[in-house]
Amino acid sequence: MKKYRYITWFLSLILASCSLYDDPVDCGDDTIELSLQINSFVKGALLSSETDLGSADEQAIDNLYVFLFPTSGSQTLKKYYVQSSTFTGGSWSSADRKLVLDISSTEAGSREVYVVANCADLKTALDGVSTLVQLQAVMQTSNTPWSAVLKTPILMSGGKSHDFSSNYQLNGIPLVRAVAKIQLNIALSASHQSVPLVDGVARYQYKFINFDKNMYVIKPSVKTDNLVSSSTWNAWTTTGTVTSYTLVGGKVTGLTLTTYLNERDAQGSAIEISLPYMGSGPLPPPEFGDESYTLKLPAKVERNHWYIYDVAI
């Protein structure tokens, strides 16, 4: 009996020490921790191993939705919407990209963890999610799925399987941007250099062809086309968020176009451009007029890819 009382007293001392020092490594039964990382853009015109972190705006996180999906019948779904440093159920450090959740590692156990970032527009849909299958079906649709409608902060998501009962910390949940990025740099030959406006009409214009309307939180295994194209030609602007041009001696010598777009599994997406033709030839006008060119985008447009095209015309 004396030995039994000694063991009881010793265990009580250990528990008291845990409470006193609150060391989650030794006693970690009060909170769990999740840290996030933002995957770099895969960068290149076609296939490339080059990467780029993107701009500060392209790495920004304004809000989060965190899901801890059950892996056994004894568990219940845990989910949290985060838009400030403190929220119901935990805290968030934007500087460290770290979440602390007020759930014990024992209760958390083995989970499928998914995080969705910059999802305020999808909060109502995410509120209704109770399974991973339902999360995979969440999307938003735009009738103008290109910039400047698609802009920063960018919808991102990522997930990992983890057993919190073995390690209360889940590090490096990868967040992947839900959109791709196209950058078109055009160097113009003398025959295509003109003043940007003639009688108030833009000489340099563009259209988006067969862009997909649907942006899924998580890439579906098969993405069905839901396509739209620009209804009219759009004027190239001097210093816009989508287009810009370089002027030398009052004439346009270079064009740049940058847009976000949704991923697409099938080929057929393109950007059309209309340019003035100022060359000399054997015939008088109307031989000289606008010319149009079509830049075909990759057969498969993938999320978190940055496609760069340097073109001389």
TrEMBL record:
Q: Which PROSITE patterns match?
A: PROKAR_LIPOPROTEIN
Q: Name one Pfam family in it.
A: P_gingi_FimA
Domain (Minor fimbrium tip subunit MfA4 C-terminal): residue spans on this chain: 178-311
Annotated Major fimbrial subunit protein N-terminal domain ranges read 48-160
Q: What is this protein called?
A: Minor fimbrium tip subunit MfA4
| UniProt xrefs under Gene3D superfamilies | 2.60.40.2580
